[in-house]
Amino acid sequence: xxxxxxxxxxxxxxxxxxxxxxxxxxxxxxxxxxxxxxxxxxxxxxxxxxxxxxxxxxxxxxxxxxxxxxxxxxxxxxxxxxxxxxxxxxxxxxxxxxxxxxxxxxxxxxxxxxxxxxxxxxxxxxxxxxxxxxxxxxxxxxxxxxxxxxxxxxxxxxxxxxxxxxxxxxxxxxxxxxxxxxxxxxxxxxxxxxxxxxxxxxxxxxxxxxxxxxxxxxxxxxxxxxxxxxxxxxxxxxxxxxxxxxxxxxxxxxxxxxxxxxxxxxxxxxxxxxxxxxxxxxxxxxxxxxxxxxxxxxxxxxxxxxxxxxxxxxxxxxxxxxxxxxxxxxxxxxxxxxxxxxxxxxxxxxxxxxxxxxxxxxxxxxxxxxxxxxxxxxxxxxxxxxxxxxxxxxxxxxxxxxxxxxxxxxxxxxxxxxxxxxxxxxxxxxxxxxxxxxxxxx
Length: 442
Fold this sequence. Notes:
The chain is α+β, with helices and mostly antiparallel strands. The chain folds into 3 domains: about 280 residues, no CATH class; about 110 residues, Immunoglobulins (Immunoglobulin-like), CATH 2.60.40.10; about 40 residues, no CATH class. Helices cover about 20% and strands about 25% of the residues. The strands form 7 sheets. Strands 9, 10, 13, 14, 15 and 16 form a 6-stranded antiparallel sheet that branches. Helix 2 packs across helix 3 and helix 2 packs parallel to helix 8.
């Protein structure tokens, strides 16, 4: 039987310095801004994958495989494991799923308060050397943080938008609906659109996404974030997931409430968004405010608020924006209508078909049940890893970046297949190392 081992990639000094400077502003709280963005982008894509597949174009020939599935709830254990690995790769100047040393058994209690990812405190013996016991695998690392591992993806970019589209728009050449080892691989895209049941993202260096943790509880508002971090125009996004449509969908920014529009998915499983102007000061606090079908308020975050701004503007703060303005205390105006806009960022009621002048018109096909969850992406027992340079189609950049994915193997990734695709000067070079009698494939 042929088994596969990771090729470690060591950072060039210039690229390392750029990542270290960007990482210096990363928040010690969990999650930070970039991690929230990737989490939200994952759920946004899962609510209506074909919108993303339209943008991906010919790079995603297996596009028909992806249908709406449930959003992924947040896992603190996965978030901490991913953040540690991001910092560990940055400080250790390597790029791989497995750590570059055997990690200490009490790592979870050390990170990040007394150990920020340095080899001196995270590696057995204080040195980045595998030794006779071997290096800690990605599954072993997640287990140290109390998580149940199912898969992992990594990318060189630290910008959350660029990293996400490195993964989602990786170039592939087959149409079969399978989790493919590669090269080329569709593993990043497959994990994002098919895997679960929860996710945690880490960005304190190269971006890391970890999947697993079946015991995590979810909320009707599953995730939320804004992008870019600050500016004259910022988009806020959140995902709603419930058997019934929300009766109100607002975002409260510094006491001014703006209606949200569903831009992806359905009223039961969809991504809602609004564009907000620049903050009046250096930091604008905001919270998503929904009401379910029974009129019960649901907010994201459930406590505190998120911040639009840079520098001293923290991603999360315990304060809440004011709720006394007229825009936040609107009285619905349905006047006999059973569906449609209620004038307050909510709905007068759902329809099985379409809403016309406040009345429901039946459609021949009410559509699929958006709550139906698709098959687990890694349930076929495949084991995959690829590092890919991909262009961020939404920004036109990121052509020199690298990414890497790992799916669950028969023994939870006990033996790994890694395919390394390095993009340099616009040309991809592929090398696969494996243990066994065969020569490397080039």
